[in-house]
Amino acid sequence: MMRHMQLNRSITITLLFSLLLFSFPQVSLAADNVKLLDLTGHWIGYASLAIFVIAYALVILEEEIHMRKSKPVMVAAGIIWAMIAVIYAGQTDTAYHHTAEIMIRHNLLEYAELLLFLLAAMTYINTMGERGVFDALRTWLVNQGFSLRTIFWLTGLLAFFISPIADNLTTALLMATVAMAVGGTNHKFVALACINIVVAANAGGAFSPFGDITTLMVWQKGVVEFQEFFVLFIPSVVNWIVPAMLMSIAVANDHPTSLNETASMKHGALVVVGLFLLTITMAVCAHNFLHLPPVIGMMTGLGLLKLYGYVIKIRDLRDQRISNSMADSGRTTLNIESSDKPQTAPFNIFQQLERAEWDTLMFFYGIILCVGGLGTIGYLTVGSQLMYGDLGATNANILVGILSAIIDNIPVMFAVLSMMPDMDHGQWLLVTLTAGVGGSLLSIGSAAGVAVMGQARGIYTFFAHLKWMWAIALGYAASIWVHLWLNADLFHQAIS
């Protein structure tokens, strides 16, 4: 009976999958060949712009109103595309009738690649956390008895070099935990260390496709190849080191009391780290040598992690049986109740999948669809002309970094990639740098800053960060100057 039910279920899934394949037109319909209307002066355009502004205002107020950021942008995306579809469906020329459908599928394809890539990366990060990798690193740092100034530099250095492999958000949270554990009630040190960590994590993420969402978007779009990101290494170092040197002067060289925390990695922790590095390698090779989307390598790596998760689960179940057997024998001898020893659940890889930042992933959906809708209306073309036509590429790209501190680097970078202005390689690397590090100018300008504010609530604040904005701005300007000077050969057009 059970086999019969499973067979019916398999047939149903196969039929549904086949139906989906044949009922949906190919997404590869070139969005470039679609006939678009200029709706920038239409009431639909004004209404869509207003809806997006209201939705994003609610995102900015997330900490105050306690409403998750994905909710308003997802609703805004649906309303904007519904209005666009109404206009195109009402055209007498039938060539316009499927424009909204084609354009939204084009945006959904971009989102799907980003979603799956991030889901694989988040699952790996969660698994490494569950296996105790990050706890072991944090405990080692806390127990060494370093001075406050040494911890200041070590946490910044580690944040800079871990964020290109993991991501700036996870790295910033990990290092902030170390700073808070060592600093204790020394709130001045904790605030300075957190500022340094946020700047370092954002700077480190700027020279790697895996370090930030914006660099990942640039890489997946094929604008900058994997190995080309590393020319931003020295500008990124400058972006961090300039404010770090200025802030370190205010850090006392005291030696806090050494803490005796203990933490050990669980079975398979180092194997998971190795699989993560292998997965990154597969993503790079899939893109560079096989000309496949990087997400294929990431999802294959996620499959390997799930297989290894099965091995861990089998080991946990075996250990649990041995433990139960020993408990039974002890209970017979000493009359010990089985409830005296709590049972830990065996490892489950799907729990790590569930712990992914779903609010963030859904936020990306709303942002990509909203910005895609505004682009279909025609606002991105107008914006491209205002920024890259009137201001010039260099000034526009510097402005992108400043805007990313005020708004968010993800919608700003997606808008730039949707505009696809005619720029040389040096300019594309410049906008990658500025969008990645510009968020450091304000504590609310990056996911790392917002997350650390929540972790060190009342200590690392908006105004504590603002006091050192002048130093961070010096690092921002210096990193741009170093890139323009060091990578001058990449600017084939005159720098404007």
Explained architecture:
The protein has about 500 residues and is mainly α. It is about 70% helix and about 0% strand. It contains 22 helices and no strands. The longest helix is centred in the middle third of the chain and has 41 residues, at about 295-335. The chain is globular, with a radius of gyration of 25 Å. The model is unreliable at about 1-5, about 10-30 and about 335-340 (pLDDT under 50).
The unreliable regions are 2-7, 9-30, 336-341
Q: Whole-number average pLDDT?
A: 84
H/E element sequence: HHHHHHHHHHHHHHHHHHHHHH
Amount of helix? over 70%
Compact overview of the structure:
This protein is an all-alpha fold and 496 residues long. The protein has 22 helices and no strands. Helix content is 71%, strand content 0%.
How would the blueprint of this fold be written?
Blueprint: H1 2-23, H2 43-60, H3 62-65, H4 70-89, H5 99-130, H6 133-143, H7 148-162, H8 168-183, H9 187-205, H10 213-221, H11 233-248, H12 269-288, H13 294-334, H14 349-354, H15 358-377, H16 379-391, H17 393-406, H18 409-419, H19 425-437, H20 447-455, H21 462-466, H22 469-486
Helix pairs in contact: 2-4, 2-15, 4-5, 4-15, 5-12, 5-13, 5-15, 6-8, 7-8, 7-9, 7-11, 8-9, 8-20, 9-11, 10-18, 11-22, 12-13, 15-18, 16-17, 16-18, 17-18, 17-19, 18-19, 19-22
Structure keywords:
0% strand; 496 residues; 71% helix; 22 helices
